[in-house]
Amino acid sequence: MDHFQYRDGVLHAEDIPLPRIAEEIGTPVYVYSRATLERHAQVFRDALKDVPKKHIAFAIKCNPNLGVLRVLARQGYGADVVSGGELERAIAAGMAAEDIVFSGVGKTRAELALGLDRGIGQFNIEHEAEGVALAQIALAKEMTARAVLRVNPDVDAGTHAKISTGKAENKFGVGIDVAPEIFGRLAALPGLQMRGIALHIGSQLTSLDPLEAAFERAGRLVADLRAAGHSITHVDLGGGLGVPYRPDDDPPSPAEYGAMVARVTRDWDVTLLFEPGRVIAGNTGVLLTEVLWVKPGATNPFVIVDAAMNDLARPALYDAYHDFVAVKPTGEKMTASIVGPVCETGDTFARDRAIDAVEAGDLAVFRTAGAYGATMASTYNSRSLVPEVLVDGDRYIVVADRIAAGTIMAAERVPDWIE
Ligand SMILES: Cc1ncc(COP(=O)(O)O)c(C=O)c1O
Ligand SMILES: N[C@@H](CCCC[NH3+])C(=O)O
Questions:
Q1: N or C: which end of the chain has fewer CB within 10 A?
Q2: Which InterPro entries does this chain map to (predicted)?
Q3: How far is the CA of 62 from the centre of ligand 1 (A)?
Q4: How does pLDDT run across 46-102, given as a tens digit for each residue?
Q5: Which of 58, 60, 61 to mutate to test the pocket of ligand 2 (most atoms within 8 A of CB)?
Q6: What's the rounded Cα separation, in Å, for the pair 350 and 167?
């Protein structure tokens, strides 16, 4: 059940009418539903019921808010992190270090050392030199790092080029053809316990076929590595499952994904790791905004809202579609372009789209904004950093403050040697 519903003609987040949040917190503001988050966590876990040994690590890059992470930690989720900052966040949110997986193509030596010091469960090594460095650092600390080698299976994920990660030309992982030799050299290093492989072919995947093709290649690699005498106990299948952004989008369900995984990996006899992000958080959040002005355009009017590309970057970056609905729809429709106040033409959420009729002062939301929304926000144009609210039934709390432009400015200084 969707926890963003109209009641008496007013859009609610669980039991909270969104106009109340707009009035008390101001706009723009991200609003998350705890119930939806918990339901998605449960649905994804249930979808893997036929996978005997598994661990789920939420890809916290998609929504690293501490309140959100705490909800998922309570659901038994670990974290997939890609920086020292994310690592500290996951721990601060209550995730067990053992349940943390450290991915990322450019980990620094300091970040590798931090992971060891914190006792994280697994490092996902992206290339040989990183593995060598990790082994050296671990050895110096008289520790052993548990690691897997990320392989690049060279499959076309069929998603936006900027979020595709498993083609040979992408920067991630090592080529699957050279993986056995690199794995062999790393496995021989003291300080490193190479226990398996990882892959992640891209995000917002709307077909299971490329995932299945990649997993089959991974299965063959596991067999080859075992044949070469390696003990393979862990395979990290990454994340990537898409979510519906448009009302008629129909991506594979977690249950279909789980069934495919169970079938393809049936004989692997490993612990499977999963790194879902968007499928857990995407539909748990909306970006609540106020219409500032409706301005005539050459063809259709511009609806100028108080949210902008600095608050929700996905449309500007990937031409991504986010459904836009009025908080108090009148039943009337209009065709308009939805734009923000930032001084870039790219600050456009929708072009010539049929939407609920709105006028200045009305509230509206961009849907499916719980993943890669607030986390990618900036203060461009000296706008405030957008706040976040978590709703739980008939109560809500601000889980991230609005950070005013003045606060950002206070962290800057003018050199006294400029007269
Ligand atoms: C290594 C890794 N794991 C997991 C994810 C999460 O992906 P998604 O949000 O598409 O599930 C990403 C981002 O695409 C990633 O780079
Ligand atoms: N930021 C991207 C997803 C990136 C996935 C990162 N591995 C998006 O908003 O769709």
A1: C
A2: Ala_racemase/Decarboxylase_C, DAP_deCOOHase_LysA, De-COase2_C, De-COase2_N, De-COase2_pyr-phos_BS, Orn/DAP/Arg_de-COase, PLP-binding_barrel
A3: 8
A4: 999 999 999 999 999 999 999 999 999 999 999 999 999 999 999 999 999 999 999
A5: 61
A6: 30
CATH number at residue 183: 3.20.20.10
Atom of ligand 1 nearest to the CA of 62: 9
Q: 59 and 16, same structural domain?
A: no
Question: Is 355 domain-assigned?
Answer: yes
For atom 8 of ligand 2, the residue with the nearest CA is: 372
What's the token pair of residue 183?
A: 């794995």
Whether the ipTM is more than 0.90: the answer is yes
Indicate the number of domains in the chain: 2
In a domain, 418, yes or no: no
- Which of the following is catalytic: 343, 410, 414, 418? 343
Same domain (yes/no): 52, 137: yes
- Tell me the one-letter amino acid at 39: R
> Using a 6 Å cutoff on CB, does residue 166 contact ligand 1?
no
- The answer to the question of residue 216 being in a domain is yes
Sheet of strand 16-17: strand arrangement: 4-7, 10-13, 16-17
* Domain limit, last residue, from 279, 307, 335: 279
Ligand 1: does its nearest atom lie under 6 Å from the Cβ of 356? no
Which of 237, 161, 143, 170 lies closest to 198, judged by CA?
Answer: 237
Per-residue pLDDT reduced to its tens digit, 171-204: 999 999 999 999 999 999 999 999 999 999 999 9
CB of 251 shorter than 6 A to ligand 1: no
62 has catalytic annotation:
no
| Domain identity same for 297 and 251 | no
Q: Which residue, of 279, 298, 324, is where some domain finishes? A: 279
Tokens representing 163 are 């979020």
The answer to whether the predicted template modeling score (pTM) of the entire model surpasses 0.90 is yes
Domain of residue 353 covers: 4-32+282-410
